[in-house]
Structures are given as C-alpha cells and as structure tokens.
Amino acid sequence: LSPKNLTLEITESLIMESNPVIKDQLTRIRAFGISIAIDDFGSGFSSLSYLHNLNFDCLKIDRDFVSSVLNSAKSEAIISAVIRLADGLSVPLIAEGIETQEMAQKLFKLGCLRAQGYYFGRPIPLEEWDMPIY
After folding, report:
1. pTM to 2 decimals?
2. What digits encode the pLDDT tens for the residues 7-55?
3. Closest Cα to residue 103, out of 48, 64, 134, 53?
C-alpha cells in the first residue's frame, strides 16, 4: 500500500492532551507520506491552538453536528464556521454520518464537498470490494 493512499485518523480528544510525543510522532508519520485527519472535530472541548501548532491534512466534523443540520440553526452555523476554518487552513473538511440525500445536499450547499456515511454505502469486507487492491 502506497503511503499516499493511507490516512491516519486521530481523535480530537487525543490531540488535546498536548503531549509533545504525539506531535513528534505525527510529524514522523507525515514524513512517510501518510496523511493525518483530525477525527470528530468539535466533539470535545476544542482549543484552536492545536490547529496552529500541529501539522495535519484533513478535518472531519463530528457526526453530532451533521445529524442535526436539517433541523438546527446552531448546527448549521457551526458547520458553516468549520467549513470556513478548513478553507482558511487549506485542508479538506469531511462531514461524518451522512445518512440521507437531504443531509448530503444541505452540506453540499453549505460548501462541504466531502462526506462519508451510510447514505453512500455501508462497510463491507475487503474481499467483497470490487476495486483493484494494490
């Protein structure tokens, strides 16, 4: 597997520990060409300072915000702010937990161009995947 095809997801809560070893290890992992994604962004007691001090390649917004985007102005405002934040940091934002076409369309209209969830497909065993494996 080529390192460029691998993304390591680190939860926001782990990064919040401000452990210098974590920062050093993530830097070393990225040097191999492996991408780092901050998973569950917004789910903890977020501190934006770690975004400034840590090299990462992607933000993944927590599904709790995504799940209520259709009926909560607060969730929509938070998602819009995180989209602008990701744009400003020049990293992609992935919305987690997309379960309906309406959710996918709403997030796309807000400017979130990447998403994952059961709407797009359920997890399957590797041997059932019809893509070539390199």
Report:
1. 0.77
2. 998 887 777 666 778 888 888 999 999 999 988 887 665 567 677 777 8
3. 64
Catalytic residues: 96
Instruction: List the one residue out of 101, 104, 124 whose CA is nearest residue 114.
Output: 104
Tokens at residue 123, please? 């997890």
Query: Which structure tokens are listed for 65?
Result: 């915000």
Residues near 134 by beta carbon (within 8 Å), at least 6 away in sequence = 1, 2, 5
CA distances (Å), 43 to each of 63, 78, 100, 101, 109, in order? Answer: 9, 12, 22, 24, 23
Contacts of residue 50, defined as CB under 8 A and 6 or more positions apart, other chains included, come to 15, 16, 18
CB 80 within 8 A of CB 61: no
Q: What SS3 state is found at 66?
A: helix
* pLDDT tens per residue across span 81-95: 999 999 999 999 999
Would you call 31 exposed, middle or buried from its count of C-beta atoms within 10 A (0-12, 13-18, 19+)? exposed
